[in-house]
Design a protein that fits this description.
The structure is a single chain. The protein is an alpha/beta fold. The protein has three domains: 163 residues, Alpha-Beta Complex (Spore Coat Polysaccharide Biosynthesis Protein SpsA, Chain A); 84 residues, Serine Threonine Protein Phosphatase 5, Tetratricopeptide repeat; 70 residues, no CATH class. It is globular. Helix 6 runs antiparallel to helix 7, helix 6 packs parallel to helix 8 and helix 9 packs antiparallel against helix 10. Strand 1, helix 1 and strand 2 form a beta-alpha-beta unit. It is built from 14 helices and eleven strands.
Amino acid sequence: MKLAVYAIAKNEEKHVARWAASCADADYRVILDTGSTDRTVALAREHGVNVHEATFSPWRFDDARNAALELVPADADYCVTLDMDEVLLPGWREAFEALPPGVTRPRFTYVYSRNADGTDGLTYGAHATHHRHGYRWEGAIHESVVRIPGAGPEVQGWCDAVIEHMPDPEKSRALYLTMLRDAADAQPLNPRHAFYLGRELMIHGEHDEATAELTRYLAMMSPHTAERSTAMRYLAAMDEEGREAHLLRACAEAPERREPWADLAYHHYIREAWAECYAAATRALTITERPLGWFCEAEAWGALPHDLAALSAHHLGMPAAAIQHGEAALELATGDERLARNLTFYREEVAA
């Protein structure tokens, strides 16, 4: 099996050595530099990476990624898209070599973020890896890999490889907002553009415009329930007065997801509505199978639901439940001093 790792890059000198080392086991390592003014190109070549240079005007992420893909030798079996702020964790090559025959689109574990204690944060099953032939990128921004028409059926398969995102917190997101505005203007009925534009506006603090865009998105009746539920949760975060209504809609839209129930429980905790808090928190905990999707958030799968259930159980005069959930919360967040103090309090209250 021949494996290729490819990327687009611009002014990524601080990440080059780490990136190159993580994919050193690849048969081919290709970077398409799109206009760096720092030492990205020189450093990558020093690390043995095959570097090409090109510029794109107007800029589109899919155009750049497709150009990078074209630079990958034709005899490669699989291509791994690895951005410069990402790394492949050890064992990735062996994971690809263990794939069953016929898989054209391997799925892998993507660690998007880590918690303060170093444990995995937002983690999901991604699929930006693909067979060398029969695929291309589509989308000016928030681009995705798609099967080329006529290339035959796509066959997905799980791969035990892990890619970790290690972003630069100083990197500007201004380009994303501009490009998303342009994309939404060009395709106003495209729900993907509307959702991501609304999200980006929220990140930038443009809450009025974000609310309008996410509301417009929801009117499109996108079939993606997890995405729709997330949009409702975004609206809740920006609308204190209407928060509960948005969260109830989010729970109804995707009742199989933990995230909206956890948000609803926290909302009731702030209001000191203990019965409602306990009901929502324990409802979240009935969902035990964690989906590996982009909308699966670490907080909902960590200590939070148990913590909220314990707090509300205490206020409802349910000491056994408070201890049970307090123990479960601390087990998921070992070393958390507040949770430890709370559990001690619950136990002492029973002993008294």
